[in-house]
Amino acid sequence: MASSSNAEHHAGRPPWGLTLGATAIGLVFAGPLGYVVWQNLDLGSDFADVVFSPDTIGPLRRSLVLATSVACSAAVIGTLLAWLIVRSDLPGRGLWRVLAPLPLVFPSFVGATALISGFATGGLLERVVQPLGMDQLPELAGFRAAWFVLTLFTYPYVYLLVGARLRRLPASLEESARLLGHRPMSVFTTIVLPQARTAISAGTLLVFLYTVSDFGAVELLRYDTLTRSIYASRLVDRPTAMALSLLLGAVAVVVVAAERALVRRDPPLSGRTGGSGMRIRLGRWRWPAFAAVVAFVGFAIVGPVSSLAYWTIRGIDATRSTGSLAVSADGIGRAISNTVLISLATAVATVTVVLPIAYLTTRYRSRVGGAANGLVVGGFALPGLVTALALVFWVLNAPALAGLYQTLPILLLAYVIHFGAMASRPSQVAVATVPMRLEDAARMLGAGRARRFLTIEAPLMAPGLLAAAGLVLLSAMKELPATLLLAPIGFDTLATRIWASMDNVSYAQAGLESMVLLAVSAVLTWLFVIRAADRLD
Amino acid sequence: MIAPHPATARSLTTGVALIGLLLAGCGSSSDDAAPAALADSTITVYSGRGEDLIQPVFDRFEAETGAIVEVRYLGSAEAALLIDTEGDASPADVVISQSPGAIGFLDQAGRLAPLDGSILERVDPGFRAASGTWAGITGRVRTLVYNTDLVDPSDLPVSVLDLVDERFAGQVAVAPANGSFQDFVTAMRAELGDDVTAEWLAGMAANDSPNYAKNSAIVDAVTRGEVPMGLVNHYYLPEALEEDPGLPGENHFFPDGDLGSLLIVSAAAVVDTSDHPEAAAALIAYLLSDDAQRLSAEGEKEYPLVAGIAAPAGLAPLQDVAAVVVDLDVLAGGLAGTQDLIAQSGIEQ
Hints:
The complex is a heterodimer.
Chain A: H1 16-29, H2 31-42, H3 47-51, H4 54-87, H5 93-99, H6 108-119, H7 124-129, H8 142-168, H9 172-179, H10 184-213, H11 216-220, H12 226-233, H13 238-262, H14 286-319, H15 332-363, H16 367-378, H17 384-397, H18 399-402, H19 408-432, H20 436-444, H21 449-476, H22 481-486, H23 494-503, H24 507-536
Chain B: H1 12-24, E1 42-47, H2 51-65, E2 68-73, H3 76-86, E3 94-97, H4 100-108, E4 112-113, H5 117-120, E5 134-147, E6 172-173, H6 179-206, H7 215-224, E7 229-233, H8 236-243, E8 249-252, E9 263-271, H9 277-287, H10 290-299, E10 303-304, H11 328-333, H12 335-345
Helix pairs in contact in B: 1-9, 2-10, 3-4, 6-12
């Protein structure tokens, strides 16, 4: 079933325009990594000394262990969820399609704080389990806590990409296997996994990179990773901070290259796709599966939300009599529209920008394409603060751009560069979905390039690209460091407001704003991810 | 969005005169008193101090002078890194930091312009840079927050140094990664030397003092009863009580000038590349005016630093909490050494 990947490459050289475009895009995306290299030289960082220091080895090991663990658990959970929601007769699929991607929008410092306070002694969860006879909950800290919390907030990377892939697969194979008496689990492992492996792998890679770059969750859960070392030294020892950032970038480049080398691509789809009407019957597994989905997705959303709601209600309650209410909706409408506009613009721009690279790497054997892809994806492992400072540096040193410093176009550029990785691998998966023989046939029939793209390729790629755009959209909703540094003054987003409220210890306000962020994200997911995908079927 | 500022010619004398005017005119807020020179300027501020806390003061300054104050709110360390990365092109005129560490970084990098003596002298020498580049505007006091259900006040320690005692094993939460805790450790190094400090940190580590990420997390944990006591800044508890007045928490200020009652300042400075240094200095002068200091004390829970301004409602006066002041230039400088000591002590486990 697995066709050799060579068979799907064009034999000839890629068009020079495509190579040139991909090179230019790759160079722009090289900005953050290039800045980190430049800073290492400029500040005279002793890279080897820092990297081999015992103070680095421990955090590096913890970063890798955590990222690998989270990537594995998110891969398993995201894939299973995608299959259950897209392909099976799981009850409540319409609702799950809206809910399952949502944990992605919790900024990790909010999600972690909410879960910690829920789990803590005297917290909400204790009140729930105490009547059941449990009096001591595990403290939410350290490796297992970081693994658990980050899995809860990152599985949607895998879920969204695998879900998009599965929607395109003909269900006939699974149907036949089921009719031949295979159990659902065996259908899953023998039919679904081989068909979705690129999507799984692409999502897992994103989870890995997100985890190594995360600071908010590991800081609060007190798991000492490389990003904590970078933050601790960012002001007092900049050469070390920059050397550690370079190390993180190097890890990312290696992991990205390894993923591309190891994972063969999915077999292309035949012309007959879709068939989302066909559902695999889970039989007696239906309700256990339902219970598992309720427990997991329910916890990923209800867990943090119950703390957020509790903070808000408690704050309103305490201040109702004082006349100065603990929460205020002033300016929240503007923050919502700012957040929605910049996130939508980022989603569209990012997918458009990475598409040429996806073509080049998927359709041709191209070193340029491989390198450009490495730069786009690898930069995602850098902490957001480093990426933002890199943008400050490059923009102010580029005469053509300096006049635009701290304006919306530059903020958009920063978002696109930071979130390019999310669209990059998924776009490749989408491009690979188009069988070359279809395109070849169209070419032989005399269809022009533009017409072939619009009538044949775009419709086939659309679900994959939509999933990519959805990932970018939901991730951009919570962007913080670049927004604080590069947004025009006064350009509040929901994330900056939540940050300010948390900083000010206004938990009631932070809780309210976080719930607004979640609600707005749910609406956007429904409008731009789910309804759009349904129309494509 | 950062429009090139109109190159208004303004002599230094106007600037100084104007500062004098602002300082002398505390209380008088009639429009006639508004210095005409400020009316057309836009002052860009990078503030590590939160919008809720400091924006009211900027609003009043705008109303009184006709100047426009544009504020970018971000973390103090991020503000310092941003100005450093921007270099000569920095749009910032004024920087406000929550801690001496971040503003000290800019001072050492040569990115701050000297302040006029008339501004500096508004606060005690202990509250400003010896280099004359920045002045403290408000301050917070280190304290021991405790759960009133779990701790008998008579058992409370008289000195922060007593916390290494065996009877406090597992009882006192710390936030070793937090900037204020690190400022406190730096102050201890300055006062008692590295050896005593290392010993104290090791003692806290040996006592298995529970770790938290930051002050607010400690106050949450203490009031929930997860841990009986914790080392924090004074204003986190009043803020938590505002949203939940029933919390069983109390601040214990170490008496008699104990190092545990260290005062840490929020500070303001003019960025060396500012296009409007006079207007920037006028804003800082305003932050230290009686008016603004009083306004801060009403809205914030930090202590005003100008002599004669009352402490925020519900807080004991600064002299009664016996807050100690340590040579702030030491605080601003030796943060790297402090982080090394903390890392070596094992307190972070």
